[in-house]
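Support request from a user on the community tier.

User writes: "When I paste my structure tokens into the form, the page sometimes reloads and wipes my input. The last time it worked, I copied everything first. Here is what I submitted, just in case something in the input itself triggers the reload:"
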């Protein structure tokens, strides 16, 4: 049997390890965190993502996930609420990733927690446990590139700074938010707010680097500017931030799609954000991570290689990522926001349609 090494124990890595171990492949998964940890993620689990997780054997509601069936967009001048075209869920990545790694171990995968991958040279991986050279290598390290295997992100949109934290909201705010994913628009940015398990809310937002610098360049100055806006004040003013410091990331290459090339670029199967980065505005990053794991496992089991996987994945996702980029450009631009919301007010069915056409398709 071939040995498969997977770098990264997030959604894509955990799902791929589970699927391959169930096919009697010898799998080692390297996860840098010793204990489950929070990750910068909106934690919106779309209907397609829920289907893939359920097929793996996870019951999201049993894990404590909250259910959502409506989308609400809030701006200075309008609030628009429409039904989602699917049932969605909110669950922390800390809990979800841990459950997936438990599944992988139960399937027979060897999960090495606290194992740091330091460098990749072909299929050789230098790790904190020593060097390994598996027959098959999967890169599922999320937004973090590894030495020796960078992504080619030239031309991608990297002009946002991202933040993620948790908020304990007041009882009336929780009641108003229940069942909804809220997208809150502001000048040169947008935020997502939704409930996850335990009655807390995930606040995840993006702001353009230039705007962030203008208002002080710190999380405190950004938060003060946001809470001064009525649409944020009505949600956050009566609550408290749970994390001492938010998770922060900059330079995310939105619109990135790995291009299959001959040679070293296709030595490894790329999964999740290592394969494609869809704008967070559309909330389908988690489904893409799971889909890429499913696609990689199927390709490996069929005897295909990384190039086969990347060609197929690009065909699956290129249209959705391209459309999502246009939506993000509109959503992050103040003048275009007003035009977009005016159009949606006249034809509310646009929103569910956009939510549907930016989804990953899950075979029945």
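"...and here is what came back when it finally went through:"
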């Amino acid at each position: 049997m071939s040995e498969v090494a997977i770098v990264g124990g997030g959604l894509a890595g955990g799902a791929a390890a589970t699927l391959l171990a169930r096919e009697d492949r010898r799998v080692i998964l390297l996860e840098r965190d010793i204990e489950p940890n929070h990750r910068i993620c909106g934690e919106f689990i779309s209907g397609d993502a829920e289907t893939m997780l359920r097929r793996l054997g996870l019951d999201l509601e049993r894990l404590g996930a909250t259910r959502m069936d409506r989308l609400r967009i809030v701006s200075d001048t309008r609030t628009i609420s429409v039904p989602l075209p699917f049932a969605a869920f909110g669950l922390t990545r800390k809990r979800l990733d841990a459950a997936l790694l438990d599944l992988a171990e139960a399937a027979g995968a060897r999960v090495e927690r606290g194992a740091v991958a330091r460098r990749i040279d072909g299929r050789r991986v230098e790790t904190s446990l020593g060097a390994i050279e598996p027959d098959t290598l999967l890169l599922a390290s999320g937004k973090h590139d590894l030495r020796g295997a960078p992504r080619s992100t030239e031309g991608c949109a990297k002009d946002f700074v991202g933040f993620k934290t948790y908020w304990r909201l007041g009882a009336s705010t929780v009641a108003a938010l229940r069942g909804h994913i809220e997208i809150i628009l502001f000048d040169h940015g947008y935020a997502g707010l939704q409930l996850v398990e335990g009655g807390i809310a995930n606040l995840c937002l993006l702001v353009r680097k230039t705007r962030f610098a203008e208002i002080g360049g710190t999380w405190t100055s950004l938060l003060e500017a946001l809470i001064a806006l009525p649409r944020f004040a009505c949600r956050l003013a009566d609550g408290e931030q749970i994390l001492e410091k938010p998770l922060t990331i900059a330079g995310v290459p939105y619109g990135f799609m790995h291009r299959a090339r001959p040679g070293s670029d296709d030595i490894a199967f790329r999964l999740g954000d290592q394969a494609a980065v869809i704008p967070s505005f559309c909330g389908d990053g988690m489904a893409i991570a799971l889909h890429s794991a499913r696609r990689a496992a199927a390709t490996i089991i069929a005897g295909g290689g990384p190039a086969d996987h990347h060609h197929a994945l690009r065909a699956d996702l290129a249209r959705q990522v391209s459309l999502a980029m246009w939506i993000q450009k509109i959503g992050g631009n103040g003048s275009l926001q007003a035009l977009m919301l005016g159009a949606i007010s006249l034809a509310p069915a646009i929103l569910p349609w956009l939510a549907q056409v930016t989804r990953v398709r899950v075979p029945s």
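Agent notes: The reload is a front-end session timeout and is unrelated to the input. The mean pLDDT is 90. The domain at 3-60+91-152+254-355 is CATH 3.50.50.60 (FAD/NAD(P)-binding domain). Escalated to web team.
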